[in-house]
UniProtKB/TrEMBL annotation:
It comes from the Bacteria. SUPFAM superfamilies: beta-carbonic anhydrase, cab (SSF53056). InterPro entries: Carbonic_anhydrase_sf, Pro_CA_2. This is Carbonic anhydrase. Coiled coil: none annotated. One of its GO terms (molecular function) is carbonate dehydratase activity. Pfam families: Pro_CA_2.
Length: 133
């Protein structure tokens, strides 16, 4: 079964209950699309809301609004924050250390605001390797 078939089955299953497992926040960079789609299908079988924004957690106020809406509208229990290698929104400041720092800060703020949600942070390479940070 291909990934498109899996998405179709997931949509049928989750549309009936109007809730999903997680919200996934990542960068809008097209180079990540295939890696992210496969990762979400594997790690979020209960469905997911997807937020794609330049720089991912770099715009934390927007991310917080989206997490709040996802929780309110779709009863999500998990938050996945994914930054990536060679992010144009970060430019020269986009070192792995900077991404780890921003992801840790975003996780702390989201965990404080939504203590009942599980928050995980990941760093994605352009080769498709996900590392929990």
């Amino acid at each position: 079964m291909g990934w498109y078939d899996k998405i179709s089955l997931m949509k049928k299953a989750t549309n009936q209950v109007h809730s999903c497992q997680a919200i996934v926040v990542s960068c809008m960079d097209f180079r990540l699309s295939d890696h992210l789609t496969l990762w979400m299908l594997k790690n979020c079988p209960g469905g997911f809301d997807r937020v794609a924004i330049a720089g991912s957690v770099k715009n934390l106020p927007f991310v917080l609004e989206q997490v709040e809406l996802s929780k309110k509208l779709h009863h999500t229990k998990e938050v996945y924050l994914i930054n990536h290698e060679d992010c144009g929104a970060y430019g020269a400041d986009g070192t792995p250390e900077r991404h780890k720092k921003d992801l840790a800060f975003a996780k702390r703020i989201i965990s404080e605001k939504f203590p009942d949600m599980k928050v995980k942070t990941l760093y994605l390479t352009l080769a498709g390797e996900f590392t929990e940070v």
